[in-house]
Amino acid sequence: MKFIIITGLSGAGKSEAMRGLEDSGYYCIDNIPPALIVKFAQLCINSSESMKKVALGVDIRGRQFFNDVYTSLDEMKKLGYKYEIIFLDCEDDVLIKRYKMTRRNHPLSFDTSILEGIVREKELLKELKSRANVLIDTSNLKPKDLRKQIRDIYIGESEGSNLVISVTSFGYKHGIPLDADLVFDVRFLPNPYYVEELKERTGDEEEVQSYVMNSSVSWEFLSRLKDFIDFLMPNYMEEGKHHLVIAIGCTGGKHRSVTFTNMIYDHLIEGGYRAIKKHRDIRLK
After folding, report:
1. What sign results for the dihedral spanned by CA atoms 139, 145, 149, 151?
2. What does the alpha-carbon distance between residue 192 and residue 194 come to, in Å, rounded to a whole number?
3. Is residue 275 part of an annotated ligand binding site?
4. Which amino acids does the record list as binding GTP (predicted)?
């Protein structure tokens, strides 16, 4: 049985992620009291219906019952019940905007500001975040994009080889992705931004790619990066990692990082890995 616990910061998109899991064939229950996790897992395992895929939403709304989550997770491990944790993270300013837009209170901010509630929640969830198998930064994701990312990770999974690799380009001036496992800086490569006819174009276009790769340094770095990734992937799979995020950054996230993200994505697909490609900042100024 595939058993997923989805959690994270309030306002980070747990409801949308649950919908994505439902689209992937999971039986989902939101806001279950953490103390009931083990009993529910036993019920699913012993069910005559033989549920294959189950997802439970757990968050801080449980208030005083929330700390039971760690006891339940430890009990699951002791009983030999395998599970995965998806943790949704998000930048503070984005969360504040979401709460103001919906005119809702943060669960921990009834007697304080939204920001103070977020800071308090982050502290309470620190251990749970450290246990997560999949960490997703939703700061720059629209609801439909989050649902798609969840579906991409969990549709087509198979026993024994279920590592999904997300390769994302980004611009350093817009910040490093919160969920990145590996970060590579390509700001030392030839920059099309300073070529007038290429400035407003992107690394998805052949002319920009040719400019970036018109250097022996570019080709050597690409070769070394491929070798490094080829070395790492089997080791991550051996460890049992389910989701790996490779982030490649340049200054604005439009030219060099996009070019290299496309090439690394193609390399992973050719190598038979399950990969997802995203250009986070390609349309930003």
Report:
1. positive
2. 5
3. no
4. 59-62
160 pLDDT higher than 50 = no
Confirm or deny that 60 is annotated as ligand binding: yes
10 is in an annotated binding site: yes
13 is in an annotated binding site: yes
Most confident of the following: 1-10, 159-168, 215-224, 236-245 = 215-224
Is 12 marked as binding a ligand? yes
State yes or no: 14 annotated in a binding site.
yes
Confirm or deny that 72 is annotated as ligand binding.
no
How far, in Å, CA of 87 to CA of 50, rounded? 26
DSSP character for 219? H
Query: Is 57 among the annotated ligand-binding positions?
Result: no
d(C-alpha 162, C-alpha 128), whole Å: 22
User: Residue 152 pLDDT more than 90?
Assistant: no
Tell me the domain boundaries of the chain.
Answer: 2-154, 164-279
Is residue 250 packed enough to be buried (19+ CB in 10 Å), middle (13-18) or exposed (0-12)?
A: buried
Task: From the options 3.40.50.300, 3.50.50.60, 3.90.380.10, 3.40.50.80, give the CATH code of 2-154.
Answer: 3.40.50.300
Q: What is the pLDDT of residue 63?
A: 63
Mean pLDDT of the chain: 90
pLDDT given for residue 106 in this prediction: 85
Is 8 marked as binding a ligand?
Answer: yes
